[in-house]
Hints:
Layout: H1 2-15, E1 32-35, H2 40-49, H3 51-57, H4 69-81, E2 88-91, H5 96-105, H6 111-114, H7 117-127, H8 130-133, E3 137-139, E4 144-147, H9 152-166, H10 171-177, H11 185-202, H12 205-227, H13 234-254, H14 258-269, E5 274-275, E6 278-279
Parallel strand pairs: 1-2, 2-4
Antiparallel strand pairs: 3-4, 5-6
Helix pairs in contact: 3-13, 4-9, 5-7, 9-11, 11-12, 12-13
Amino acid sequence: MQRALAPILLALAAIGCAAGHPERLSNPKSLRVEYGEPNRFVDGVGWVLGVPNKLALWDRRADNHAISPETEVKLVEYIEDNGLQDVLVRVNQYDPLGEWKRLGSNRKVGAGWRYTVGTLNMLKYTLLPGRLWGDDWYNPYTDTINLYSDLAPLALSEAAYAKDVRERDYPGGYSAVQELPIVGMWHETLASSDVLEYVESRGTEEEREETYRILYPDYGGSWGGQVASFLPWGSVFGRLAGAAVGHAANGVRSVMGSDEQSEFATEAIGDNASTGSQEWRFQ
């Protein structure tokens, strides 16, 4: 297995470093965004490996390893609106050395959590690079958002998780607990709800519909994948089944009136959740 992965990892290391791309974002002064160098072979393999997620969301932009400036701009706006400027965004980039350095320097999370659970996350990042396997995610131990899909709702969800972690008194312990099966749906619920409310208050009608269309099946797929994770291939088939339920729920929402839609969305993703004195809803 290691011998089979070695050539791929070497190729990723060669093309995964920051590429600059100043034309992508005109003036990201307050935010660090780094890009992986385009590579037709590696990104092509990643596109194929991302087919299950494309099917789950019924959108070829999922795990397509080609993020558009429009998606980046929406993510940057959310980050700036929520005071998350110190987070690092890696756009289709594989940089294990840089991430190991960030693991050591991230003082937002205690060293005990960073060098235990955080190290396990880094081993996964290093040996199973998202540049191939996709799956957008936020790493709280390095404070990094990793993007591989050209879908703004997914990008905003990862930023919403970063926001959630920052609001915790014990971010390391909270992040570690969120990696447990089923329990991890707590932060998924908070992040999805936050993004839905954010887009409802600031987005266009088209952006709102796009957010519902993506987040409903993504949320349902997360439930399905976690519930079935103990079965062989359960994560894959469970995600597909859960995503189908999410698509159906969004279909019901889309034929309801605007007031009913809002109420239905709240009940479907999470009703009035809070964490002690910390209100999760976007204000």
